[in-house]
Amino acid sequence: MSSHARTLERIVEVALTAGVAVSGALLVIGLLLGSTAPMWWGVLLLIATPVLRVLVVTVGLALDRDWLFVGVSLFVLSVLLSSAYVSGRL
Amino acid sequence: MIAIPTLILIISGGATGLIGAMLGIGGGVFLVPLLTLVLGVPIRTAIAASLISVIATASASSTINLERGLVNMRLGMTLEVATTLGGLAGGLIAAALSQRQLFLAFGATLAVMGVVMALRSGRRNVIAHDAGVQPGRLGGRLQEGDQAYVYRVKRVPLALTASLTAGAISGLLGIGGGVIKVPVLNAFCGIPIRVAAATSAFMIGVTGAASAFLYFGRGDIALHLTSAVAVGALPGSLLGARLSQRVEARSLKILMAVVLLLVGLRMALQAL
Question: C or N: which end of chain B has fewer Cβ atoms within 10 Å?
Answer without folding.
Answer: C
